[in-house]
Recover the amino acids of this structure.
């Protein structure tokens, strides 16, 4: 009985496996027979070809026999033909159908195709404000010029160089406490009683242009475990805005929280950056870790006197909510020696962006809303000062070339959390072409340590040279 | 014991045989739907294709979303139109993709513009090129809109597939031959239909049609755009209307990613038809293949000429 049950089981297993094999076998078996057929067809073709070649060889042998008798005559004829060809001009290209290479197709000399992608971006700025006591309320001139060079170094790396030429930027509002130095170590300007900067303290009308190698780095594209490594001088991965170059902002000034906690130019430092794309494919998630030497002119951090570095980590998360809607959320932290070199400092930052851009008419309509938040901690021995800042910016595209923006901002100061300032802005952008834009921003500023005032900025940005990447 | 070992033997045989029946597909990512369709025709069931741009999207301005990097990371082959059509979004994506197979110059990277005879190669001094608008310095990139070029694109793709999977060379070659034969037969049909309308003049929105115009023997007399990338002004439209009237133009063609209103206004003023024409596969509903693209475009164009 036991044996019968077992043998029945085996019969079932055998049938099941046979069924499974037959189900797969048609693919392999019929594929096999198809293979056989195509092999026979190929053999047939090869046989045919061999016969053709045999007859050609036979003909060739006959010809060479005749040829040897008339060689001397042929040589003379050949020499004449070659001489004729050398004397004649070559045929015009239009009478000949040839496939031309890219270099032949252009007027550009081949040497220029080995140049890096070079672009030059200029930015003209006009500003004004209604701060009563200032002698000069209006300014006009070049805001910044950027020379960008980028190219592939080899199959494994790219390199980027950015030289910036700009005027030294004084903030319109700066906090000055009698017992402490100015926040901006370049700034030796005097302050008015109500906290406003004297924009021209020396009375010379001077504001020279400064050259600066803003960024210079190599990026190794294919490091192990899905990482990419960047080394050199670069804008750190901090918040949503720090890596963006000023001419590419959709606002005319870095948000006040960046200015107060970092600097007017953002966080730029020298070191190494590792970017790791997390291996899952549920959504885009990238972790960046950076070690840098320590910046100059930074409100929160300074280069350590000892073996201390600045550490920065940022996690970017990106979700496609639909074809037309996306969500990006980032979280980051910087840690290093504080600006006064009296202890450590940390800044935690979070950013969230919602973007709507309909696929079909993405050139005509879009909406974007970005909010960033920052908390800073400055440690001086047993004392710690916590300060915060945030901004929220909405940008709506009304038609192909016009964008309207509104922004609200709040910021304390890294060393003084009892003092704060707010700003509310309206922005209009006219993107005339891909290479030229005009922007106007009006801003209302208020704070608990200065008299409120309005200021406006008008900017024109123009670019020549290599086509850069579109921003998303 | 004997029966257990026999069943293990059966099981392992089954697994072995089922393994022999399955082969991994090549993961092919393309920029446009046209390249995806051609790649699928050549690769058949040995490839899986994804197009990053939808058919109705302007391929110059596809957004380089971070999520696209995830698709590129897993790709075996990447195909782009080239000639700077995708310059605004592809290089940054390929740099971030962490995939040497498909990076520029990689074994799976295909620039489909190779071997194409290009039209409208600008002869202007490079320093003044942008005065002509946002034109492409190497030549007009919309070359897939001449079906003869479809054969060249297909051959380029086939040759690369053969290099990547030599064991399937004959399969790809057979598919290529079949595709070219079908395309050749279709070309004869389209040429016949278009023959009575040789030299007909039309107005287009953007300069994406020189290859199609050359194939169809039609002439594009003017563009809604002032220059490539410069949207129409009132003055330009008025001048275009004058041209349209004086040359008795009966057709104004528009692509799905442009604002149709200026074209409709011009068409109305000159007594012409504003016709939605398909720049790519799947740009208009019902167009699901490269051959279908020209079937549709030839049909709507001829209808507007009648």
């Amino acid at each position: 009985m036991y044996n019968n049950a077992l043998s029945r089981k085996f019969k079932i297993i055998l049938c099941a496996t046979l069924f499974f094999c037959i189900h797969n076998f048609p693919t392999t078996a019929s594929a096999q027979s198809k293979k056989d057929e195509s092999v026979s067809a190929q053999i047939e073709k090869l046989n045919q070809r061999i016969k053709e070649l045999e007859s050609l060889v036979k003909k060739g042998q006959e010809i060479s026999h005749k040829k040897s008798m008339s060689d001397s005559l042929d040589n003379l004829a050949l020499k004449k033909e070659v001489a004729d060809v050398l004397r004649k001009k070559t045929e015009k290209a239009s009478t000949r159908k040839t496939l031309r290479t890219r270099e032949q197709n252009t007027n550009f000399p081949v040497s220029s195709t080995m140049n890096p992608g070079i672009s030059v971006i200029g930015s003209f700025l006009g500003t004004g404000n209604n701060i009563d006591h200032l002698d000069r309320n209006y300014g006009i001139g070049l805001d910044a010029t950027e020379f960008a060079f980028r190219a592939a170094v080899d199959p494994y790396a790219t390199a980027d160089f950015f030289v910036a030429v700009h005027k030294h930027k004084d903030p319109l509002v700066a906090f000055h406490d009698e017992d402490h130095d100015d926040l901006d170590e370049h700034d030796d300007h005097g302050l008015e009683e109500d906290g406003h900067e004297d924009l021209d303290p020396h009375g010379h009308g001077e504001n020279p242009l400064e050259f600066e190698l803003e960024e210079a780095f190599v990026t190794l594209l294919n490091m192990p475990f899905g990482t990419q490594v960047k080394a050199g001088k670069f804008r750190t991965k901090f918040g949503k805005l720090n890596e963006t170059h000023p001419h590419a902002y959709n606002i005319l000034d870095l948000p006040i929280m960046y200015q107060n906690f970092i600097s007017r130019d953002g966080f730029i430092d020298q070191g190494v950056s590792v970017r790791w794309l997390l291996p899952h494919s549920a959504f885009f998630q990238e972790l960046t870790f950076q070690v840098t030497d320590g910046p100059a002119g930074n409100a929160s951090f300074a280069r350590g006197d000892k073996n201390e570095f600045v550490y920065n980590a940022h996690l970017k998360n990106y979700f496609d909510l639909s074809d037309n809607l996306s969500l990006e959320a980032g979280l980051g932290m910087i840690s290093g020696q504080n600006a006064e070199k009296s202890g450590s400092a940390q800044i935690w930052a979070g950013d969230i962006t919602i973007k709507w851009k309909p696929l079909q008419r993405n050139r005509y309509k879009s909406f974007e809303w970005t909010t960033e938040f920052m908390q800073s901690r400055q440690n001086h021995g047993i004392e710690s000062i916590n300060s915060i800042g945030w901004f929220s910016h909405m940008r709506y595209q009304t038609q192909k070339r016009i964008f309207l923006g509104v922004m609200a901002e709040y910021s304390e100061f890294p060393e003084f959390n009892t003092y704060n300032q707010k700003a509310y802005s309206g922005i209009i952008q006219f993107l005339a072409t891909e290479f030229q834009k005009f922007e106007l921003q009006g801003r209302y500023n208020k704070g608990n340590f200065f008299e409120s005032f309005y200021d406006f900025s008008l900017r024109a940005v123009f670019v020549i040279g290599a086509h850069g990447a579109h921003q998303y | 014991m004997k029966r257990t070992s026999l069943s293990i033997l059966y099981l392992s045989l089954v697994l072995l045989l089922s393994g022999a029946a399955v082969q991994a597909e090549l993961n092919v990512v393309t920029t446009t739907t046209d390249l995806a369709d051609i790649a699928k025709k050549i690769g058949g069931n040995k490839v899986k294709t994804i197009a990053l741009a939808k058919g109705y999207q302007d391929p110059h301005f596809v957004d380089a979303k971070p999520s696209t990097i995830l698709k590129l990371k897993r790709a075996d082959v990447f195909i782009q139109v080239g000639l700077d059509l995708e310059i605004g979004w592809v290089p940054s994506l390929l740099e971030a993709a962490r995939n040497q197979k498909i990076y520029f110059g990689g074994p799976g990277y295909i620039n489909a513009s190779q071997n194409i005879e290009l039209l409208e190669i600008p002869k202007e001094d490079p320093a003044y090129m942008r005065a002509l608008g946002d034109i492409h310095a190497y030549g007009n990139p919309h070359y897939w809109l001449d079906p003869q070029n479809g054969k060249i694109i297909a051959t380029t793709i086939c040759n690369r597939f053969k290099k990547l999977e030599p064991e399937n060379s004959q399969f790809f070659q057979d598919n290529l031959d079949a595709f070219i034969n079908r395309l050749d037969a279709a070309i004869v049909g389209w040429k016949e239909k278009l023959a009575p309308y040789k030299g007909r003049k039309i107005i287009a929105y953007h300069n994406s049609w020189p290859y199609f115009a050359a194939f169809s023997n039609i002439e594009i007399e003017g563009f809604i755009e002032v220059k490539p990338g410069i949207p129409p002004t009132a003055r330009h439209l008025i001048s275009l209307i004058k041209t349209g009237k004086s040359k008795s133009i009966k057709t104004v063609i528009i692509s799905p990613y442009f604002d149709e209103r200026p074209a409709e206004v011009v068409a109305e003023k000159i007594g012409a038809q504003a016709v939605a024409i398909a720049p790519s596969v799947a740009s208009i509903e019902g167009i699901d293949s490269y051959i279908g693209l020209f079937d549709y475009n030839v049909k709507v164009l001829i209808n507007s000429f009648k």
About this structure: Residues 129 and 135 of chain B are 8 Å apart (CA to CA). DSSP finds ten helices and eight strands in chain B.
